[in-house]
Amino acid sequence: MHGAATASITVVYLARLREAFGINGERVAATEPAMTVGALRATLAARGGAWATELAPGRAVRIAVNHAVASPDTPIREGDEVAVFPPVTGG
Amino acid sequence: MAVRVQTEDFDVARELAALREGDARVGAVAAFIGTVRDLNDAAAVTTMTLEHYPGMTEKSLAAIVDDARARWDIFDAIVIHRVGELKPMDQIVLVGVTSAHRGEAFAACAFIMDFLKTRAPLWKKEDSPSGARWVEARGTDDDAAARWDRDSGARG
């Protein structure tokens, strides 16, 4: 895919969501130049099944960009690492 | 300041001794040790598996300790969190804080634990005779962390 114009981002899934989706992570093509966390969540939810259920609006999902907790309007850029996970339960 | 995420157990006495070693300003050492219970929400727990997000966990814990240092006059702090498979009675987490007086040490230790529980990317999965399940986040933990916002204007 050298020279491809579409930016791609790394997305990792953790804990219960990793099990629900059945994958540890993947490369996702950005659907627009100015992709945001909210847009990524909607893109993933549109896959249906567990994606739609777990990422539905109102479900408690945390998303981090480059290891920092993000909000729906946080921009995502080529090369960023995005993590999608449930509320934390350490300690 | 030290933050460690590890599968191995830790020696509380040794860690706390190292934390205050050579620092004659220290008049108080506060510590919290979290351990695995054999019962949670009425289910017998046989194994608890802790998963984390490598890289972000360490950064998150370091940021929480930095926040504590900004709020209270503490000298040093250590946070050790175990990951992997643990059994009932195993140690999970150690938070240790040194300061001149107990008030600062107690407060900073509680603050670090409250934010660790609500911010650091760690997750518990419990195995019991009825199957495995991911532990659900508790609203009471969010309340515990939120109290520090209310307290922030009142500290002396």
Properties at a glance:
heterodimer, A: 91 residues, alpha+beta, Ubiquitin-like (UB roll), five-stranded mixed β-sheet, 3 helices, 5 strands, 24% helix, globular, B: 156 residues, Aldehyde Oxidoreductase, domain 3, four-stranded mixed β-sheet, four-stranded antiparallel β-sheet, 4 helices
Shape of chain B: globular
* Class derived from helix and strand content of chain A: alpha+beta
Output the strand order for the largest sheet of chain A: 2-1-5-3-4
**Mean of the pLDDT scores of chain B?**
94
Topology:
The complex is a heterodimer of chains A (91) and B (156).
Chain A: E1 8-13, H1 15-21, E2 25-29, H2 37-45, H3 49-54, E3 62-65, E4 68-69, E5 81-85
Parallel strand pairs in A: 1-5
Antiparallel strand pairs in A: 1-2, 3-4, 3-5
Chain B: E1 2-6, H1 12-20, E2 28-35, E3 39-40, E4 43-44, E5 47-52, H2 56-71, E6 74-82, E7 84-86, E8 91-99, H3 102-119, E9 122-128, E10 131-134, H4 139-151
Parallel strand pairs in B: 1-6
Antiparallel strand pairs in B: 2-8, 3-4, 5-7, 5-9, 6-8, 9-10
Helix pairs in contact in B: 2-3, 3-4
Task: Describe the fold and architecture.
The complex is a heterodimer of chains A (91) and B (156). With 91 residues, chain A is α+β, with helices and mostly antiparallel strands. Helix content of chain A is 24%, strand content 24%. Chain A has a domain at 34-91: Beta-grasp domain (Ubiquitin-like (UB roll), Roll). Chain A has 3 helices and 5 strands, in the order E-H-E-H-H-E-E-E. In chain A, a hairpin with a 2-residue loop joins strand 3 (62-65) and strand 4. The longest helix of chain A is centred in the middle third of the chain and has 9 residues, at 37-45. Chain A is globular. Chain B has 156 residues and is α+β, with helices and mostly antiparallel strands. Chain B has one domain (2-151): Alpha-Beta Complex (Aldehyde Oxidoreductase, domain 3), CATH 3.90.1170. In chain B, 36% of the residues lie in helices and 35% in strands. Chain B contains 4 helices and 10 strands, in the order βαββββαβββαββα. Chain B has helices spanning 12-20, 56-71, 102-119, 139-151; strands at 2-6, 28-35, 39-40, 43-44, 47-52, 74-82, 84-86, 91-99, 122-128, 131-134. In chain B, helix 2 runs antiparallel to helix 3. The mean pLDDT of chain B is 94. Chain A binds chain B through residues 12, 14-16, 19, 60, 62, 64, 67-69, 83, 85-91, and chain B through 34, 50-53, 55-56, 59-60, 81, 92-93, 113, 116-125, 134-137, 141.
